[in-house]
Amino acid sequence: DSGVTQTPKHLITATGQRVTLRCSPRSGDLSVYWYQQSLDQGLQFLIQYYNGEERAKGNILERFSAQQFPDLHSELNLSSLELGDSALYFCASSGGNYQETQYFGPGTRLLVL
Amino acid sequence: GEDVEQSLFLSVREGDSSVINCTYTDSSSTYLYWYKQEPGAGLQLLTYIFSNMDMKQDQRLTVLLNKKDKHLSLRIADTQTGDSAIYFCAERDAGNMLTFGGGTRLMVKP
């Protein structure tokens, strides 16, 4: 158990809908990262937050957004969902210290029908 | 941009050693990681190596890094059926972003 929790574990929704994925980092970690894992694109970095502020952006679509709250949990919002958004979404956290090793949560499996 | 490559598949017999290889292109990589993903599960951090090291051993795992050739390998000694999984290498750049390889599926036959 990495100490990173994600909810829900599974999510089934329809095209055009909006969903919110939630992540709680390991105790004491200040950074949260979101990744998307799909069969055709592999594991792709989406976005990073550090202590409530956006720090880095990867291949995140404009339809997707994220935020990190004062208690350091993070939410990833996916809107106007398309079939191609079906994927595993992982959250990872790191301490914000020099080592910056990322520990991953169990993921949320999103299926868009 | 950065690119990380891994072979897709490796099959070994139980008790043999497994060697999973990875190549990367970013010369500014600071750390390199190996993660394990079992079916339906998240990514489990196995081990990592700092870019100025060339070897790291951790129980049954040995990581070798050839910086000149930008080649990283993970050796698993005495491979067990429980080691069957997908193994991802990842490089971390100076901005702390991770770039992952496509993963190597390790199958261990009894």
Structure description:
The complex is a heterodimer of chains A (113) and B (110). Chain A is mainly β and 113 residues long. Helix content of chain A is 0%, strand content 53%. In chain A, strand 7 (64-68) and strand 8 form a beta hairpin. The model of chain A has no long low-confidence stretch (mean pLDDT 93). Chain B has 110 residues and is an all-beta fold. In chain B, the strands form 2 sheets. In chain B, strands 2, 4, 5, 9, 10 and 11 form a 6-stranded mixed β-sheet that branches. Chain B has no helices and 11 strands. The mean pLDDT of chain B is 92. The radius of gyration of chain B is 13 Å and the shape is globular. The A-B interface holds A 2, 31, 33, 42-43, 45, 48, 56, 58, 90, 92, 94, 99-107 and B 31, 33, 35, 41-45, 48, 88, 92, 95-103.
Note the main attributes of this structure.
heterodimer, A: 113 residues, mainly beta, seven-stranded mixed β-sheet, four-stranded antiparallel β-sheet, globular, B: 110 residues, six-stranded mixed β-sheet, five-stranded antiparallel β-sheet, 11 strands, 0% helix
Rounded to the nearest angstrom, the radius of gyration of chain B is: 13 Å
Number of helices of chain B: 0
Distance between the termini of chain A: 31 Å
Largest sheet of chain A: 7 strands, mixed
Multimeric organization: heterodimer
Share in β-strands of chain B:
over 45%
Biggest sheet overview of chain B: 6 strands, mixed
Give the helices and strands of chain B as they follow along the chain: EEEEEEEEEEE
What order do the helices and strands of chain A follow?
Answer: EEEEEEEEEEE
Summarize this entry quickly:
The complex is a heterodimer of chains A (113) and B (110). Chain A is mainly beta and 113 residues long.
